[in-house]
Amino acid sequence: MTIGIDQLDFYVPQFYVDMAKLAEARNVEPNKFLLGIGQTEMSVSPVSQDIVSMGANAAKNIVSEEDKKNISMVIVATESAIDSAKASAVQIHNLLGIQPFARCFEMKEACYAATPAIQLAKDYLANRPNEKVLVIASDTARYGLHSGGEPTQGAGAVAMLISHNPRILELNDDAVAYTQDVYDFWRPSGLSYPLVAGALSKDAYIQSFQESWNEYAKRYNKSLSDFASLCFHVPFTKMGKKALDSILTEDIDSETHNRLTSGYDAATYYNRYVGNIYTGSLYLSLISLLETHDLKGGQTIGLFSYGSGSVGEFFSGKLVDGYSEVLNVEHHKALLNSRTELSVEEYEHFFNRFDNLEFDHETELTSDQHGIFYLNDINDHIRNYNTLK
């Protein structure tokens, strides 16, 4: 009996800023953003969308009434926690109406945490054939206006239902993790924005990938020719491409080289228009690959997960026959295409309101967002959520 991803979905806020226009406003050559880091648009989170509401919105369409009876664990992976004690998984569990006898908690290790959450879910379900685990990766990436990291911001959530006999991706028993204590990106308690050592961060990412991939290939006697495609954690789309290029050496045959390169382009298409969503970035890339590339059941997908600080992991899964029938391509296209573009000035207002928790529902909630969860207000430090009718 196999275990893996039975369903998956994502949610991004209703607003975005055009990266070329942001570049011009920052007196930067637009191609530095469009080509240099490989980003075209960037999701902008209103105050009314935090990790709870985004996570619930990502999950609501893939969790049926029957699933709610069988989900016995909810895990939220995030580095944008809104409380130092109460787990956002508890609030999402409530919003979705999942049965009460379930474990709910958060996991943290920068952008990596969704991957150990999935591995934990897989191990947990090994002796529980009738149960399911809901894993949610939800984050708002924020570095500050006019900061060096500003063009690699974003917001969104990915939800994955882990179960026996999955309909999308069967997880293989072949993960290799690599841990190294390095200060490439970190956010000490009390700081609103992370601290980043840019050059070190890129080097640590690539080293982590190479170490985990090389060990994986050695342990399991694998080569790049064994994979239909690879997915990477993509804080910006050129980051994963640098890692991929580092192993596409001269001894790689042209067919494998071309296959993995074209697969990478497909796997980062959605990310290019969303930006960095931290823990969800790898899995948004997986959705992008599955929905924009020609793949077949039985093919193997390799995945590299990375979280600064740092932990990297390379693992794989096998596509299930008929996986495309479970995807919701039209919904995702509509979600991305129906967003509202903000001017740079409007984006800056949104950004400052988010920091100051200044609600503006008249601006942020529009009629075409009916059915979504949103943060309505905060009273006595208690967050109250509603559903837009």
From TrEMBL:
Catalytic class of the enzyme: transferase
InterPro entries: HMG_CoA_synt_C_dom (IPR013746), HMG_CoA_synth_N (IPR013528), HMG_CoA_synthase_prok (IPR011554), Thiolase-like (IPR016039)
Residues annotated as transmembrane: none
Gene3D superfamilies referenced in this protein's UniProt entry, alphabetically: 3.40.47.10
SUPFAM superfamilies in UniProt: Thiolase-like (SSF53901)
Any Gene Ontology biological process: acetyl-CoA metabolic process
Entry annotation: catalytic residues: E79 (proton donor/acceptor), C111 (acyl-thioester intermediate), H233 (proton donor/acceptor)
GO terms, molecular function: hydroxymethylglutaryl-CoA synthase activity
Domain Hydroxymethylglutaryl-coenzyme A synthase N-terminal: start-end pairs: 3-164
Binding site for substrate: G148
Entry's EC annotation: 2.3.3.10
Keyword Transferase applies: yes
Hydroxymethylglutaryl-coenzyme A synthase C-terminal domain segment(s): 177-259, 265-385
Keyword Acyltransferase in annotation: yes
Binding site for (3S)-3-hydroxy-3-methylglutaryl-CoA: Y143, K242, N276
Homology family: Belongs to the thiolase-like superfamily. HMG-CoA synthase family.
Stored PANTHER family: 3-HYDROXY-3-METHYLGLUTARYL COENZYME A SYNTHASE, HYDROXYMETHYLGLUTARYL-COA SYNTHASE
Protein name: Hydroxymethylglutaryl-CoA synthase
CDD domains: init_cond_enzymes (cd00827)
Keyword annotations from UniProtKB, A to Z: Acyltransferase, Transferase
Cleaved signal peptide residues: none
